[in-house]
Each structure stands twice: as structure tokens, then as C-alpha cells.
Specification:
By secondary structure, the chain is mainly β. The chain is built from no helices and 43 strands. The strands form eleven sheets. Strands 30-36-35-32-33 form a five-stranded mixed sheet, with no helix packed on it. Strands 1-28-27-26 form a four-stranded antiparallel sheet, with no helix packed on it.
């Protein structure tokens, strides 16, 4: 399920039937006995079903499959780069919770035989590595809390309440469902926030089949819930304050029949997954796009690492996992595949294609996943403008510190809202940090996409750097060929083209005059027929 904290005050009043943006396309589909899906932070995704757990790469190719002795109902991304899941055997008990690495190795396992109190249906990893488990049954919901080692530390019971979803919120978890004090025909829409042990509980709507299917937090601290508020066939989106008090509710379009999942996106918008359709809407209450959803059921949804939608829907006998494209495409070209021991810089270029039909200002940030342990935020650029349907080239760099361990690294470059952890698109590159001092720090990096060329055959140096007004660029070219040399600002805007045409084999020099430019960081991009190099320029006054 989605664990994304959304970021604004949003509500839905009226949804126009026209689209103001191109809906995301389908990247791929996969049919299988699936109940749950979640992204794996270190790459790809994992799907679970009846005695089935499969890790897929971003393109839907199988990496590995495990057949646990229980059915998997929910999966949540974990801080260690892996995931945590819950489920139960076909006979109802025992119920299991398992924390795993991205490679499928078990970190810890917790089991429980209290089948008469329901089975584990929903799970949320807590900050620091613990977990909150929801085991609903008709008329009662039990919550178990585990410590980071998987040991039971607390339990909480809520009589006459049935939970249908659980999501993280500030300081606890938010559960949506219904009450049935007056019998199953007289349920009421309910939300409750659990902290230690209960922060608040609220019910809404008329008695008579009123149900909250899903609720999540906006980063402003407000909450949005989706469900059937008045016991009719009209489904609604409701806005609540942090204390659970309902501020307003508005009817959803008929196409979004039985809305069961939602998440906020960048650009002041929200996406909602229903049994009949998937829709995105802006704060001006216009429909951005609408996609027909292949029902009759939606089993689970999540956001992929690049911000694209993951939806499991269909019939009980033939559920289908659909992977949608993100709204922003990001391709990353880095100048290093291997870096030596010690302190190193890696220069890269992110090419960003925007399918949105409105201009938007986003952030670009890099997250580095080391061979083991959690992620490292390697750099953030704010205020990057994406034009409608346009493409920008964003040059950037990251630092590999001397104390970083040797091994394989994954760097993911995100576009979206860094402050609110909302990704609209992302691209990746990988590199290896060498374990021994077989290469000196002075050695140039292996150029990505350089074919059989040695690294020192095409080289770029800048002197002086930092520079005050004029810098000299020296290019070593192995043979006469076309070379394009451009200078970019960190916003992705091209400042100037220093050369675009043939250069003779040997040493060539170019001059960059920074007169009239603001102090700061600029990046030089030199591209030949077989390689691309980047160098950072620092202009000081």
C-alpha cells in the first residue's frame, strides 16, 4: 500500500469530464494470483499472493520467487531498502509478519495463533524499524505493535469497529473503516488515529451502510478520506483537520465507483483509484485525466520508485498488476561506472521530459543507496522549471566520500517535491566503488557509454577552478571528430555553447568567460561520438 505522506490542503468538489493532461500510459501488465504490491526502495517492486512472493525489476521481469507457507495480504517498503509483509495461512492461523531485505533474506519473523481475533491484514513500518499491525474482523479490530527486532510490545483493541485500511500519519497511524454498534445494516463511517494507545476517534454520516474505505494524511497535517458517507451509492472525498473533525465532503464522479486508495501528487493534485476508474484532479477542481479501471475489484495500489502507479485489479480468479508510466520521464547519463577508493566526484546529466500540459516548478534531488544500510541524500536542486510537454537537461554531481564502503551503489535522481517526498519521475544509474588502492585518486573515471575507449583518450580539465572571470577548458581528443561543449546552470538552463563541430586529434583549448554571470556553480558538458564528460565550474567574485 502507499506509505506516502501527501502535502497540501486538497478536496474534491466537482470533476469535469475533460482531460487537461495526457494520462499516463501503461508500461506493462502481469497476471497472477496477487493480493498486495509495494515498491522496493533499492529498486523494482515486490508482489504477494496466496503462498507467493515475487520480486520484479522496474520492467516487470522476475528477479526471484519465494513460496512462503502463508497468504500475503499487505506489504510495506522498509527503511533498510527491503520490505515488511503480513499474512496468514489458508486455515486462518497462524498469522505472520516478516521483515526482509531486498534480496529476500529474512531479517526477523513474528507469528501469532490468535485466529479468533482476526488475521493480520494491514502493516505499517514505524520510524526506527518497528511495525504496527492491524487485524480486523467484523465488530472488532486489534492492533499489535512490534519493536525493531520484531518483538510484541503492545496491543490495543477497539470493539464494534472494523478497520479497512491503515496508513502512517504524524505521530501514529490512521485507520479507516466503519462502526457497527447497531448491527451490520446500520454501520457508520469511522476514522481513528492510534498513538499510545488512542489519540482520537470520530464517526460521520448517517447510520446505514456508511463506510470509509481509505484515509491518508496531507503534509499540511490535514487528512483526506474516501468512502460512502451517507449509505447511498454516491461515493465522496472528505477533508478533516488533524483532530479528525470533518471540514467538508464532496461527491466523487460516478466513474470512481468505490474509491479504495489515494495519494497526493506534486502540482497541487491528488490521484484516486476506484473500482471503475483512476483519476487525477487539481486544486481548481478540474479533472486532469481519467483512466478506465478494469474491475470488478481493486486489491492493492502503490507508487513505484519513479512515481508511476502500481495497481492490482480484476476478478478474484484473474487479478492483474498494471504498471503505469510516471508523469515525468527521467533519463540519467553519468560519467562514472567505476570510482577509486577515497573521495570522488561523479558528474551526471538528467534529461527530464514533462508530459504535463502546465508549467511547473519542481525539485531535483539524488538519493544514493550504498551496498548496505539506508539511503543517503546526495544533493538537492530547487526551483527547476518544467515547461508544458518540454524537455530540460539538468547537469549535476554527487560526492562519494572516502569513508563510504566499497561495493555496488545505486543512485536514483528524483523530480518532484523534495520537502514532501513526492516523486513525479525518477531515473537511475549504478557505479562501483573499488575496494583497494589499485587506482589512484588522480585517475580519470571510466566514461559511461565510451565503448572500447580508454578513459584517458578523451579528457576534459578546467583551470583555474574556482575562477573569477575566465576559465580555460582543455580537451584531449583521440581522433578528429565532432565535439559539442556546453555550459549549464544548476537550474538546467543552458548558459552557452562553447563549441559544436569538429576538433582535431590532440589537445584543444576553449575559453569560458563568466563576465556578467552570477557567482555560483556551473557545469560543463562535453560530448563526442562515443562519450560524455561533465565537469563542475565554480565562479566566484
Amino acid at each position: 500500500m502507499n506509505r506516502l505522506l501527501a502535502f497540501a490542503v486538497v478536496f474534491v468538489v466537482f470533476f469535469a469530464t475533460y482531460a487537461i493532461a495526457q494520462p499516463p500510459g501503461v508500461a506493462w501488465t502481469l497476471q497472477g494470483d496477487f493480493n498486495a504490491v509495494a515498491r522496493v526502495p533499492k529498486g523494482g517492486l515486490v508482489v504477494g499472493g496466496d503462498e507467493l512472493l515475487t520480486r520484479l525489476d522496474e520492467d516487470g521481469n522476475e528477479l526471484w520467487t519465494i513460496n512462503p507457507p502463508f497468504n500475503i495480504w499487505d506489504i510495506d517498503p522498509a527503511e533498510n531498502g527491503g520490505f515488511i509483509l503480513c499474512g496468514n495461512t489458508s486455515y486462518g492461523e497462524p498469522s505472520y509478519v516478516v521483515k526482509m531485505t531486498s534480496n529476500g533474506d529474512v531479517v526477523w519473523m513474528y507469528s501469532d495463533n490468535a485466529g479468533d481475533e482476526g488475521v493480520f491484514k494491514f502493516i505499517v513500518e514505524l520510524p526506527g524499524g518497528g511495525a504496527e499491525l492491524c487485524r480486523p474482523r467484523i465488530g472488532e479490530t486489534r492492533i499489535d505493535r512490534l519493536d525493531p527486532a520484531g518483538n510484541l510490545v503492545d496491543q490495543f483493541f477497539r470493539d464494534y469497529h472494523t478497520g479497512l485500511s491503515m496508513e502512517p500519519v504524524s505521530g501514529g497511524v490512521l485507520i479507516a473503516g466503519y462502526t457497527d454498534w447497531y448491527g451490520s445494516a446500520y454501520t457508520r463511517y469511522s476514522l481513528w488515529k492510534l498513538r499510545t494507545p488512542l489519540s482520537w476517534y470520530s464517526t460521520y454520516g448517517n447510520r446505514g451502510n456508511s463506510i470509509a474505505f481509505y484515509a491518508f494524511e496531507l503534509s499540511s497535517g490535514l487528512l483526506m478520506s474516501l468512502g460512502n458517507l451517507n449509505g447511498t451509492l454516491n461515493y465522496s472525498a472528505s477533508l478533516h483537520n488533524a483532530g479528525g473533525n470533518r471540514l467538508r465532503s464532496h461527491i466523487l464522479p460516478a466513474a470512481l465507483d468505490m474509491p479504495v486508495w489515494g495519494a497526493e501528487r506534486a502540482n497541487s493534485s491528488v490521484v484516486i483509484v476506484g473500482r471503475g476508474a483512476i483519476g487525477k484532479y487539481d486544486f481548481a477542481l478540474n479533472c486532469h485525466w481519467l483512466i478506465d479501471q478494469d474491475g470488478p475489484y481493486v486489491f492493492d495500489s502503490d507508487l513505484a520508485n519513479d512515481g508511476g502507479l502500481l495497481v492490482i485489479a480484476g476478478s478474484y480468479s484473474t487479478p492483474t498488476l498494471t504498471r503505469y508510466e510516471p508523469e515525468v520521464s527521467v533519463a540519467v547519463d553519468a560519467d562514472a561506472q567505476i570510482v577509486p577508493p577515497g573521495h570522488s566526484d561523479i558528474y551526471f546529466t538528467a534529461t527530464v521530459d514533462n508530459i504535463l500540459l502546465n508549467e511547473t516548478v519542481q525539485d531535483v534531488w539524488s538519493v544514493l543507496w550504498p551496498p548496505s544500510g539506508g539511503p543517503i541524500v546526495a544533493g538537492v536542486s530547487t526551483g527547476v522549471t518544467l515547461t508544458p510537454g518540454g524537455t530540460i537537461v539538468h547537469p549535476d554531481s554527487l560526492v562519494v566520500l572516502a569513508d563510504y564502503p566499497a561495493g555496488e551503489y545505486l543512485c536514483r535522481v528524483h523530480v518532484g517535491s523534495y520537502e514532501h517526498n513526492i516523486t513525479m519521475g525518477a531515473g537511475t544509474f549504478e557505479f562501483t566503488k573499488q575496494a583497494s588502492a589499485t587506482s589512484s585518486l588522480a585517475e580519470p573515471f571510466v566514461a559511461a557509454e565510451s565503448g572500447d575507449l580508454l578513459p584517458d583518450e578523451f579528457a576534459l580539465t578546467v583551470y583555474p577552478n574556482p575562477f573569477n572571470a575566465v576559465a580555460t577548458l582543455t580537451l584531449t581528443v583521440p581522433k578528429t571528430q565532432n565535439v559539442c561543449v556546453e555550459v549549464y546552470a544548476t537550474t538546467g538552463q543552458r548558459v552557452t555553447t562553447l563549441h559544436n563541430g569538429p576538433l582535431a586529434a590532440g589537445v584543444n583549448t576553449l575559453t569560458f568567460n563568466g563576465t556578467g554571470l552570477a557567482s555560483g556553480v556551473y557545469l560543463v558538458r562535453a560530448e563526442t561520438e562515443g562519450a560524455t564528460l561533465h565537469r563542475k565550474l565554480v565562479l566566484v567574485r
